[in-house]
Amino acid sequence: MRGMRIILLAALVLLVMDSRISHGATWTSARRLTFTAGSSACPYVAVNGLNVYAVWYDDTSGGYEIYFKRSIDGGITWPASQRLTFSPRDACVPAIAVSGTSLYVVWVEGSDTAYTDDVYFKKSTDGGATWQATQRLTYSTDSSYPDMDLALDVSGSNVYVVWYDDPTGSQEIYFRKSTNGGVTWQAAQRLTFVSGWSWKPVVVADGSSIHVVWAGDGILYKKSTNGGASWTAARWINALGAGPCLAVDSSGSLHVASYGWPGGGESEVYYQKSSNAGVTWTAARRLTWTAAATWLPDITFDSSGNIYLVWGDYTAGSGEIYFRRSPDAGATWQATQRLTFNGGNSNYPNIAANSSTVFVFWNDDTPGNCEIYFKRSIGGSI
Question: Taking the mean position of all CA atoms in its chain, how far away is CA 227?
């Protein structure tokens, strides 16, 4: 299956301060969660109190399948992994969301021979102990470009899924909604109508408002204030970004991170914010200054106004995971911390937080094949 595909500071002194690396002592050591004969990749994590839930895909069975693991004590212990899919096609790029004791997982299934990808959905109402039957959400007829990327979010019993596909000949963003926890689904909506590529969509919900960002010729944004019945026009919020990630904090502010290429050099991580539900946005602020490419940021927050950001970087000569924290909802950022020091490449970081702990997951090929690792913050502060 083809591979599945988020303002410069004025003074040099500030640049140096923002660029320095802090090894820190506020994290557990990296912990390996999978021990498989195949490759485990692209973890995605959701947190609800002390319950930590992770999904990823693995090809040990011969094709890619979706796996799930949970901890009910804040990441201290982890029971055995559960296999969620038994598909004749490859199942990849899962995402997970949590609401109370209900878990929602979406993923993509496709193959190199059929040249179509489709979105699938699965739900648990008991925190992952048992799972309902798989639902297929799309029936793609496209045969020219089978790759998809997708995301989901949950607000009460409303479940929102976004993905990209190109059945019309141009790659576009699509949206689908359930108002009863995934029992039934409304018809899919096409959100973009452009001649170029639209990809890497992300969706977050805040009450009846739904916010979507994606990559095109930069980072684009649109929203609905009535649960997806109608949408604003798409608009650019960042002219140079790619691979966006998005979070809405407890105050309703939106936080976007992406990576872009300043002046034709290596890619760097950028951050921007909207404090008025997406009406206006700050200029993109550059958060990294590295000698090698940075990519695939992920962002989250806690109830105390902390914003947490992770990304991958090849500055050390191998893929490593880095972290920054803003203690004041994105106004200022503390020094960069390097989180991984393994012999291989650490990639595809994903981050989540509860009120006292930050959890970072990634895949790492140090063992000779990709495995899932994680670490968590210690002591209630970073």
Answer: 22
